[in-house]
Amino acid sequence: MDTLWLSNPTLAYRDWQAREAAGADKRPFSARSIVQHQGMFEHFRRHLLAKGTSVVAFGADDIEAFWRTPEAITYSQATRMRYVKLLDRLCRHLVFAGVRKDNPAASLLASVRWPDEEPTPQYLDAASDKQLQAYLQSAVDDLASLRSCAIVATFLGTGITAAEGRSARMGNLQADAAPPYLLVPAHKTARRAHRASF
Hints:
Blueprint: H1 4-7, H2 9-19, H3 31-51, H4 60-67, H5 70-73, H6 77-96, H7 126-136, H8 143-158, H9 162-167, E1 173-174, E2 181-184, E3 191-194
Antiparallel strand pairs: 1-2, 2-3
């Protein structure tokens, strides 16, 4: 039995992810996925701690209680699916390691599925949009605040998604073009997201 799961589950999870964890295609997870999975694991572990249980003793009722927490209630269908897959992988590993006797997440795999379509975009009303634009144009005192304002302004002024923003580079911003635009990289064809005048 791997006793690290009993004494320090956070360290045990990180060690397992680094050494053994892999996706459905048996390839190791990317560095970004590992960080996301560790964050998800920690969020669930803190929930278990608050409920007075642990990763080696939780049951299906603890998972159900997790879905009812204020943050988890807001999770998208895709995020719930990621959690279920994470918990199923975790429990299968713990059963194999002799730390658990069951996998309470296994039955959930049949009840959740990946979304069929993208979520509906949410937009600010016109008044809130103008208010945010005015705020972003106000003077800031330090470099960190300026950077934060620039990031929010880029999202507001181009309408790109968070994933598109993460993949964009400085060279993609064409500020001197008429009109200015951000070249958004894509798997097949890149697109131009014109920058709003504000």
